[in-house]
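Hey team,

Filing this mostly as a record. A colleague (T.K.) asked me to run one chain through the structure pipeline before their review meeting, and I want the input and output archived in the tracker in case anyone asks later how it was produced. No errors, nothing strange. Just documentation.

Input sequence:
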Amino acid sequence: MKKGIRIRIILIGALFGVSFAAVTARAYYLQIVEQKRLQKQARLQHQRSVPLTPQRGTIFDSRGEALALSINVDSVYLNSRHVQDTAGTVKALAAALSLPLAEVRAKVASGKSFIWLKRHISPPESEKVRALKLPGVGFVEESRRFYPNSATGAQIIGFTGLDPKGLEGLELLYDKEILGRGGYLVYGVDARGRGMGAGRFVVQGGAKGNSLYLTLDKNLQYIAEKELAAGVKAARAKAGSVVMVEPATGRILAMASYPSFNPNSFQGYSPSSYRNRSICDNYEPGSTLKAFVLAAAFEEKVVRPGQVVDCEKGRYRVGGKFIHDTHPYGKIKVEDVLKVSSNIAAAKIGKSLERDKLHRYLSGFGFGAKTGIDLPGEVSGVLRSPSSWYELDLAAISFGQGMTATPLQMTIATAALANGGMLMKPYVVEKVVDPEGTVLEERRPQLVRQVVSKEVADRIRSLLEKTSEEGGTAVQAVVPGFVVAGKTGTSQKVDAVTGGYSADKRVASFVGMVPSDAPRMVILVMIDEPETSPYGGVVAAPVFSRIASQSLPYLHVPPTVEAKATPLPEAQQESTAFESARPVGDGGVNPLSPGPKSMPDMRGMSIRQVLCWMEENKLDLSVRGYGRVVDQFPRPGEKIHYQKPSWVRLAPAE
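Output structure:
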């Protein structure tokens, strides 16, 4: 009996010993081995975290002025469990935060421990809510993107959303570099997810993003935008662009587009205002391309200084069609081709180069390919393969029709002439710097290629000076105290309906370098669909003059010549007329002669008769349909005005 009891005691003791050892081992495992994991799991079970807006890095201009920065603003949250006077709280918050009553009421009635009332509120709103001292209402500081210069540089800088993710411009392209690490708003909850204690909230984590330093100068950007807006409004135009580049480096000093927008309140603007037209808009460069054709001809030695070109008295037949000059020039020296802007002379010079050589040089200057600038949305323009050029295409491209370019491409190509024939890659971001001031990335000037020799580039530059002399097309581009070398351009736009060139829509442009002997800047001005005058020398050249006249003293560039106070003469009109050239795609262009003409009665005429009348009177009508004319505008006997559409509609005979 005693032996049995002793055995049971031993067994029970052994069982207790094993159990105690198991408990001890389990406790050791949980307390020592799994300690960190379980503590983390406990925190997750008893904490809730709300992500806060990351603080983005600052965007500076070339002089260290902030163009975009992040500021701390209040965001208001609600712990609905602590609200005492529901009706009074709803009414007071709705009034102070300008929110609908129904929205605030739904949040108060949600029963949640944490819910946002309104984020990124203004200082006056914050003061109103704080003064109410409502139970359950709290504040936390968040980062909000702010653009201190309003619309200045808007299309380049871009903007962000509430996240704040970059949505446009540099904010989008460099989003990963600029965007910091967001913090968290942390608070405790019980097993059912209800807030515990007095509703204490703690902000944890967060780090500021990297900053960008740009090549842009805020003051030059402001000058460019101000004068562009004035020029577009004065010309009653649709839009416009300005690009200012430092030719020796490719640094973009200013890049303006009109219309613009305020990135602080971008939601109130049309998305078309966000577009950076300098890199996104294609246009036919027109006469501004003649400088590059002549440079290629000098480089290939197919023309020589002093050579005479016959301009055929303003009418020249190519491929069964006629090219026209605005003025009936006879024989002129090759040095005067740019000054008088002869289409016929340019076509003959292009013919001397032939397709492959001309295409090679235009490609060398960067046409038909993206420049590679560090901005989103750049397009390449259109420069078709020379194998698809007909004789008429070769002539048209020689004076800037039948191909397209962006304002930036034209500016960078002109900068190559200003830089001794060396094409530089354009850039906007100079360096990326971390919050501690360490330079993470720095961009240096990059040579793309030597397009023409320095001798040829200098010769073209000296010829471009003649355009701003008396009798040239760009006399209104004169900058007091400096010699300007540049070229005007007037090109027709393609009519999306007819597929041919529009009779009344033009792009007027001027691109120039100053001071001519040692260019500090190249500036392009493009005015889209001006109504007062279609000519670049009339609407674009004066904008160039005003921008350069203010920018050069700002950069402390001393005058090179004595300023003249005499009034400027009227600009010589550059040739824009080309008969039956094909635009990029299809269609035709007919010349316009100055002065209004009367519209004849064309009813019953065949399309052949209409085209013959158009050629005889040097007018371009939009021809719709086929058969015989059944309707027309203007009506018979009415005047044909340049600014208004003129058309005939044909239909098959019944």
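Quick notes for T.K.: Residues 119 and 291 are 56 Å apart (CA to CA). The two ends are 132 Å apart (CA to CA).
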